[in-house]
Amino acid sequence: MRPSRSLFLCAALCCLTSASFGQDVPGLFRDGLENEFHFTAADIAKIQSGQPVARLVATGKPDDVRMAGIVLIRTTPEVYIAALRDIEHFRMSKEVIHMHRFSSPPVESDLIEFPLPDFTKSELLACRPGHCSIKMPAEEMEILRKGIDWNAPDATERAAPLIRQRIVAYIYRYLREGDSALAVYYDTPAPYSVAEGLHSLIGNETHIAQSMPELIRFASEFPARRPAGTEDFLYWQEAAFGLKHVLRTQHVLIQKLPEGRYAIISKMLFATHYFRAAIEYSYIYPVRTPSGEPAIYVATSQRSYVDGMTGVKGAIIHRVAESRSPATLANNLRLAKEFLEHRR
């Protein structure tokens, strides 16, 4: 895989020492912003004043979407991490409709509010390996088609517990076996391995591996090789990303680093629409404002492999995504800032 430098900015944050505490963007960090992400002097000024800034990074592939963003928040790393643990109440995106953290271990009641994918009986019965309106493995298509009497008037109600059961079983396999248990989608003619997609995304981020090798290795080899100072949890969410709502499950890994820093990785374990694989890296780096207030830089990089970005129609969608996606990320950072600063 061709190495990339997409997270030079975030890596730079992790290399800084507490001696650089201050509201100004540190020099090495500023170099990364300007050289890697083409941030302007006006962008730097916005960041230093507390405004979020995000940029889409070109990958050379229409279905490979990569963004980076940063915001300065007047809070402490501990407050941010506490809010992240309470993810159901941490307002970080206006697109998210429902969100629920799984119990440890996960139970089916964790999914009691999990909405059924918006398929009809005819859509489900039409699902075959290579052609399905929902991302799922071939074996799951067969189980859902044959496990429910879809002619019954209460077919949808009967399907709900079966779907919850299948999702919890999927998560249990992942917790036990790691990425080898992740889905192989067969909604298109070519099967797609979520594990291979995630490993490709991780493998292309060489600079982040230099900055947080232990957490990268843990994300790749989970559940093996858990580093010290690490915690993790899973959650599901329903989000409005396109014409159809997306239901997806995330695995969040958090590592406490020296000098009050934190590294965070969020892996997408499955999604019903649009996303084939996705991963998010975040760094929490403590600073102090000129007045002496504690603050943190939150630097985030999101990368995903998505559907529908090829062909004439895909080119149009890609242009729209290029214009809207950075604004969405910046707004999500703004929401997190407002949420946390309001709680001070």
Overall description:
This protein is of the alpha+beta class and 344 residues long. The protein has a single domain (8-342), classed as 2-Layer Sandwich (Alpha-D-Glucose-1,6-Bisphosphate, Chain A, domain 4), CATH 3.30.530. The chain has eleven helices and ten strands. Strands 1-2-10-9-8-7-6-3 form an eight-stranded antiparallel beta sheet, sandwiched between helices. A two-stranded antiparallel sheet has the order 4-5. It is elongated, with a radius of gyration of 21 Å. Mean pLDDT is 84; it is low at 1-8 and 12-22.
In short:
By secondary structure, the protein is an alpha+beta fold.
Task: Note the topology.
Elements: H1 8-15, H2 27-37, H3 41-48, E1 53-57, E2 64-73, H4 77-85, E3 96-101, H5 121-126, H6 138-146, H7 155-177, E4 184-185, E5 192-193, H8 194-203, H9 206-211, H10 213-221, E6 230-240, E7 245-256, E8 262-271, E9 275-288, E10 294-306, H11 311-342
Antiparallel strand pairs: 1-2, 2-10, 3-6, 4-5, 6-7, 7-8, 8-9, 9-10
Helix pairs in contact: 1-2
| SS class | alpha+beta
* Count of DSSP-assigned helices: 11
Helix content: 25-40%
Q: Which fold name corresponds to the CATH topology?
A: Alpha-D-Glucose-1,6-Bisphosphate, Chain A, domain 4
Give the strand content. 15-25%
CATH architecture: 2-Layer Sandwich
